[in-house]
Specification:
GO terms for molecular function: protein histidine kinase activity. Its EC number is 2.7.13.3. It catalyses: ATP + protein L-histidine = ADP + protein N-phospho-L-histidine. This protein has 672 residues and is of the alpha+beta class. It folds into 2 domains: 313 residues, no CATH class; 178 residues, 2-Layer Sandwich (Heat Shock Protein 90). Helix content is 70%, strand content 7%. The protein has 18 helices and 12 strands. The radius of gyration is 56 Å and the shape is elongated.
Length: 672
C-alpha cells in the first residue's frame, strides 16, 4: 500500500492559481490606473505648457499686429499724399515693424511645434504671408498699387495673424467656451477699427474719398460698433470696466461723431440741379488723429484685459485638471489596494480549503484506488462504495466540488476495478487457449519429424518441409498469446546454442524463408534460457521485413560482435516509415505498454508489441531506423549477459544457405 505524500509543488500550484486569479485583474487594474493617471497628468501638463506657449505667442503676435496696423495706416497716407514726409514716416514704420518681428519671431515660431495640427498650419500660413511683405512694399514704393489694393493686402496679412490667434484660443478653450469666443470677436473689432482709421487717413491725405471707399468705411464702422455692443454683456469684469470707460470717453464720443459726419455728408448739387456724389471729407485730419490717439489705447486695453481673462481661465482649468487627476488617482489607488488586500485574504482562506481537498483527493487517487485495483487484479472481491472514503467540505460551491469528486472517484474506481477484472479474465482465457494450441502444435511437429525421417521422395519431402515451416509459424503465433498474457513460452533450452543456429531457427519460422539471406553471424553462443525468446523476437522482425518488402526482394540478416555484446541487423527493401512513425515505434520498443485495447492503434501491430515485451524481458535493445536501401533496418543489440564465449574468433560467413537447412536439434531441442 502506497502512502500519499502532500506535494508542496501541487500546493504551490493551487495557491499560485488562486493568487493569479486575484493578482492578474489587480495588476491589470493598477496598470490601467497608471496609464490613465499618466495620460491625464500628461494631458494636463501639456495643457499648462500650451497655455504658456499660447500666452507668449499671443503677446508676440499682438506686438507684430500693432506695428503692421501702424504700417498699414502710414502706407495709406503715403499713397494718398505722396509727400517726402509721408515717405519718411513710412520707412520709419517699416523699420519698427521689422525690428518687432525679428525680436518676437522666436516666440511665434514656437507655435509651429504645437501638437495642434490646425495651429501649426495657420502659423505656417502666417510666415508664408509675411514672406510676401517685401514684394508688397516694393509695389507701394514703385507706385504699382493703389490705396484700396494696398489696404486689402495689409489686411490679408493681418487676417493671417487673426487666424493664428483664433487657433491659439481654440486650442486653449475649445469651441464651446465663451471667453475664447469673446476674445476673438474683440480682436476682429480692433482690426476693423484700425482698418477704418487707415482707410480714412489715406483718403484725407489724398483730399477726397470716393464712393467705394465711403461704402467700405461705412461697413467697417458699423462692424466694429456692432461687435463692441454685442460682446459687452459677455466681458469679464476688468474688460467690462474698460468697455464702459471707452463708451463714456469724450474722445470716443467725438470719434463717433466724426465718423457719422463722414458717412452722412450730403451730395453736391450742380448748376443744373442734378445731385452728384460728394467726395469731400468734412473732417479735420488733426481732429481725427487726436480722437483716434485717445481712444486706440483704450481699445487695446479692452482687448488685452479680455485676453488676460481668457488665458487665466485656461490656466486655472489646467491646474484644476492636474489637481483633479492627482486626487482622483489617489482615491482610486487606495480603493484598488483595499480591494486587492481583501481579495488576497479571501483567496488565502479559499486556498486553505482547497489544500485540504487536494490532499484528501490525492490520498484516494495515489493510495486507496491503486490498492483496490491491485486487489481486483488478483481476483479478490472489492466493494468500492464501502472502501473509498467520502470527502466532506460543507454545502457551498467547494463542498459541491468535493461531492463531484466523490462521484467521479467512485465511478473511476468502479470502472478501473471492472477493467482489471476483465483484463484478468482475458489473460486467463489467452493462457488457456495458448497452452492448448502449444500442445497440439508440438504433437504436429513430432509427427512431421517422423514422417520426414521416413520419406525418401524429394518432392514429397519438399512439401513436408513447407508444411513444417507453416506449423512452426503457427507455434510462434501461439507463443504470442502467452507473451501478450504475460506468461513465458513452453519451449526451454538448457544448453547454450550458437547464434547462427538461432538466426536460422528464426528464419525457419516464416513462410517466405527463401527470400531471407543470412549474410554473416557473430561467433557467439546464446544462453539456453534466452534461446526461445530471442528466436521468437528475431523471427517477428524478419517476418515484418519480408512482409513490407516487394516480392521477390530479399531480406538481409547480419550479425557481428560489438563492445556491448552482439548486434543483429535485419534490413528490408520496402518503403520505410516517416520520422514520426519511427519515433512512435522506437518509443514502444523502449517502453512496452500494458497490453490493452486502448494502447493499440486502428491498425494494431501485435508483432511490435511482442518484440517489445521479449526485449524488455531479457534487457535487449531494439531500434528501427531507415536502411540504405530505402526500407527499414531493425537493429537488435544482445547484451553480454545473454552470450557465451564458446565460439570466439572472427565472424562466420554463412554464405547464402537458406533456412531449410535448420537442424532438427534447433527446432526440437526444446523441453516442454
Amino acid at each position: 500500500m502506497t502512502t500519499c505524500k502532500h506535494n508542496p509543488v501541487g500546493r504551490s500550484a493551487i495557491r499560485g492559481q488562486l493568487t493569479r486569479m486575484v493578482l492578474i485583474p489587480s495588476v491589470s487594474f493598477l496598470l490601467l490606473w497608471a496609464l490613465l493617471t499618466a495620460a491625464g497628468t500628461t494631458g494636463a501638463l501639456r495643457l499648462t505648457s500650451s497655455v504658456q506657449q499660447g500666452k507668449a505667442g499671443l503677446a508676440a503676435l499682438d506686438l507684430i499686429a500693432a506695428e503692421l496696423r501702424t504700417e498699414r495706416e502710414l502706407t495709406q497716407v503715403f499713397l494718398g499724399a505722396g509727400s517726402a514726409a509721408a515717405q519718411d514716416a513710412l520707412l520709419d514704420g517699416r523699420e519698427r515693424t521689422d525690428a518687432t518681428f525679428a525680436r518676437e519671431r522666436e516666440r511665434v515660431e514656437a507655435l509651429l511645434d504645437s501638437d495642434d495640427t490646425g495651429l501649426t498650419e495657420r502659423a505656417r500660413a502666417f510666415f508664408d504671408a509675411w514672406g510676401g511683405l517685401p514684394d508688397l512694399r516694393k509695389k507701394v514704393d514703385n507706385g504699382e498699387t493703389d490705396r484700396e489694393a494696398a489696404l486689402q493686402d495689409y489686411t490679408a496679412l493681418l487676417s493671417a495673424v487673426l487666424l493664428v490667434n483664433d487657433a491659439v484660443v481654440a486650442r486653449l478653450h475649445g469651441d464651446s467656451r465663451p471667453d475664447g469666443f469673446t476674445v476673438l470677436e474683440l480682436m476682429r473689432a480692433q482690426d476693423r477699427y484700425t482698418q477704418a482709421d487707415a482707410l480714412l487717413s489715406g483718403a484725407m491725405a489724398a483730399g477726397a474719398m470716393g464712393y467705394s471707399e465711403t461704402a467700405h468705411f461705412t461697413y467697417l464702422t458699423a462692424s466694429y460698433r456692432d461687435i463692441l455692443n454685442r460682446t459687452g454683456p459677455d466681458l469679464s469684469e476688468p474688460a467690462r470696466a474698460e468697455h464702459q470707460a471707452l463708451n463714456q470717453s469724450p474722445s470716443w464720443i467725438r470719434l463717433q461723431d466724426l465718423s457719422l459726419r463722414v458717412l452722412s455728408r450730403p451730395p453736391v448739387i450742380d448748376a443744373s440741379g442734378e445731385a452728384e456724389f460728394n467726395s469731400e471729407i468734412p473732417v479735420d485730419a488733426e481732429e481725427w488723429d487726436r480722437a483716434m490717439g485717445d481712444t486706440e489705447p483704450v481699445v487695446q486695453r479692452l482687448v488685452a484685459a479680455q485676453t488676460e481673462t481668457a488665458l487665466d481661465a485656461a490656466w486655472s482649468s489646467a491646474v484644476r485638471a492636474i489637481a483633479f487627476n492627482v486626487v482622483g488617482s489617489l482615491i482610486i489607488l487606495l480603493a484598488g489596494i483595499a480591494a486587492i488586500v481583501y481579495a488576497l485574504r479571501s483567496a488565502r482562506r479559499l486556498t486553505g480549503r482547497l489544500h485540504r481537498l487536494h490532499t484528501e483527493t490525492l490520498e484516494v487517487a495515489d493510495s486507496r484506488l491503486p490498492e483496490l485495483v491491485a486487489r481486483a487484479g488478483t481476483g479478490l472481491r472489492v466493494d468500492v462504495t464501502a472502501e473509498l472514503p467520502t470527502l466532506r467540505h460543507g454545502q457551498d460551491e467547494l463542498g459541491r466540488v468535493a461531492d463531484a469528486f466523490n462521484t467521479a472517484q467512485r465511478t473511476a474506481a468502479a470502472a478501473a476495478v471492472r477493467q482489471a477484472e476483465i483484463r484478468e479474465g482475458a489473460n486467463r482465457a489467452f493462457l488457456g487457449i495458448a497452452y492448448r494450441n502449444q500442445t497440439l502444435i508440438q504433437r504436429q511437429l513430432r509427427l512431421l519429424d517422423e514422417i520426414e525421417s521416413a520419406e525418401d521422395n524429394p518432392d514429397s519431402l519438399r512439401r513436408l518441409l513447407r508444411l513444417d515451416h507453416l506449423v512452426t509459424r503457427g507455434r510462434r503465433y501461439a507463443d504470442n498469446l502467452l507473451i501478450l498474457a504475460g506468461a513465458a513460452t513452453a519451449r526451454r533450452w538448457k544448453d547454450p546454442m550458437p547464434l547462427l543456429d538461432v538466426l536460422r531457427a528464426a528464419t525457419s519460422e516464416i513462410e517466405d524463408y527463401e527470400r531471407v539471406r543470412l549474410r554473416s553471424a557473430a561467433r557467439a553462443g546464446v544462453r539456453g534460457h534466452a534461446v526461445a525468446d530471442l528466436t521468437h523476437l528475431i523471427a517477428e522482425l524478419v517476418e515484418n521485413a519480408v512482409h513490407f518488402s516487394p516480392d521477390p526482394a530479399q531480406v538481409d540478416v547480419h550479425s557481428r560482435r560489438v563492445r556491448a555484446g552482439a548486434v543483429v541487423e535485419v534490413t528490408d527493401r520496402g518503403l520505410g516509415m516517416s520520422a514520426e512513425q519511427y519515433a512512435e515505434a522506437n518509443g514502444r520498443l523502449a517502453e512496452p505498454p500494458e497490453f490493452d485495447v486502448m494502447t493499440l492503434s486502428d491498425e494494431p501491430r501485435l508483432g511490435l508489441f511482442v518484440v517489445a515485451r521479449l526485449a524488455a524481458r531479457h534487457g535487449v535493445t531494439v531500434r528501427l531506423e531507415p536502411s540504405p536501401y530505402g526500407g527499414a533496418l531493425a537493429r537488435v543489440v544482445l547484451p553480454h549477459s545473454l552470450l557465451t564465449e564458446g565460439a570466439s574468433g572472427a565472424e562466420e560467413d554463412t554464405g547464402t544457405r537458406p533456412a531449410e537447412q535448420e537442424t532438427a536439434a534447433v527446432r526440437n531441442g526444446a523441453t516442454s
